[in-house]
Design brief:
By secondary structure, the protein is α/β, with parallel strands linked by helices. The protein contains eleven helices and 13 strands. It has an eight-stranded parallel β-sheet.
């Protein structure tokens, strides 16, 4: 049985670091594992311009712990009014690598998102021309569509159209959760990829309801039934370069999760590589983890491979249940759990 894993230093291609007082706690946690991370722009107000992304990036860099070499990669938040000119500014700014498409109302802080795909067609055309990546939250938002069907409907209603109308556009379908999304991405060209979170690899929707309602397992897109989880495990461990690591670690203050109307988001940054190692280990695919965590994402984004390493050891341990989050705390997805892998060193 493998006891030690030495991997290339990984990158997290989807994380929420928030802003203000929370940032100082969150950046060192992600930077303890990852060399780079793609930072989501759904702040209040959202990060919609290169100038705003530059200022946010400076705040992230200032929040690193002494000695940490972490590099944030920024995204801009697409709105109905994103000017086409912003695309050229993104193409010129090497620290901004893409735009995030939130359908308006799909998730946390998506009120300023896109209300109709037609509203961003000119911008998508410019992104295709400049080689700028489109990161997609792939869920339809119609109230009448069952919450468990919203991703599959998005694949049919919007993703197929985007890929058909912009055949050279680089697209990342973020945090895929369904067989339908996995199949669509597998069948598409090399310019279409997907990120997969640890929670969608490890859990099915029963986890939200085991013995009562468990708000820390609630994220969007919501966990799906077991057959979908298995499809995600299959593609994540297949060796296909189209599927790579993006935690979607999304902290919310404890009181806003444990609430009559709890926020969506799972906090996993404190044990991200340990969770992925557990998932890959469960199917005997630890040999596939290095490519998934440290190579395929960088290759898709045209970035060099990291030169450092991380070492994980097979060891039973219990992560802290809560972490400081500004003046509040955030409860980890792993609360009450024992993990089988532990990150020993990252350099
Ligand atoms: O569960 C989620 N939380 N899904 C998202 O898409 C956004 C995120 C957040 O920002 O909290
Ligand atoms: Zn997210």
């Amino acid at each position: 049985m493998i006891q030690t894993l030495v991997l290339t230093r990984p990158d997290d291609f989807h994380v929420h670091l928030r802003d203000g007082v929370g940032l100082n706690a969150l950046v060192p946690i992600t930077a303890a594992q990852f060399e780079r991370a793609l930072v989501m722009p759904n702040l209040k107000p959202p990060v919609t311009t290169v100038a705003m992304a530059a200022a946010y990036r400076d705040r992230i860099l200032a929040a690193r712990a002494p000695g940490q070499s972490f590099s944030p990669l920024m995204t801009l938040y697409l709105t109905d009014r994103t000017p086409v000119d912003e695309v050229a500014r993104v193409a010129d700014a090497d620290f901004v690598v893409g735009f995030k498409y939130y359908p308006a109302g799909a998730t946390t802080n998506s009120d300023s998102g896109v209300t109709a795909l037609a509203n961003i067609y000119k911008v998508l055309e410019a992104m295709q021309k400049h080689g700028v990546v489109l990161c997609i939250h792939g869920e339809v938002t119609h109230a009448e569509v069952d919450v468990f069907d919203r991703e599959a409907r998005f694949v049919d209603d919007q993703l197929a159209q985007i890929v058909r109308d912009f055949p050279a556009l680089k697209v990342v379908v973020e945090h895929i959760t369904t067989t339908e999304a996995a199949q669509f991405v597998s069948a598409a060209g090399p310019n279409v990829a997907a990120t997969i979170t640890p929670q969608h690899l490890l859990y099915n929707r029963n986890a939200i309801f085991t013995g009562g309602i468990r708000p820390h397992f609630y994220c969007l897109p919501i966990l799906k039934r077991e057959s979908h989880r298995q499809s995600l495990m299959d593609v994540a461990t297949s060796g296909s370069a189209k599927f790579f690591l993006g935690t979607d670690s999304a902290p919310h203050a404890k009181g806003t999760k444990e609430n009559a109307c709890g926020c969506a988001g799972c906090f996993t940054a404190h044990a991200a590589m340990e969770l992925y190692a557990g998932a890959f280990d469960a199917v005997g695919a630890l040999d596939k983890l290095d490519d998934f965590a440290s190579r395929f994402g960088a290759a898709f984004y045209g970035l060099p491979r990291n030169t450092g390493t991380v070492t994980l050891k097979r060891e039973s341990w219990t992560p802290p249940s809560e972490f400081a989050f500004g003046t509040d705390s955030v409860v980890a997805l792993t609360v009450g759990q024992t993990l089988d892998w532990k990150l020993e060193t990252a350099q």
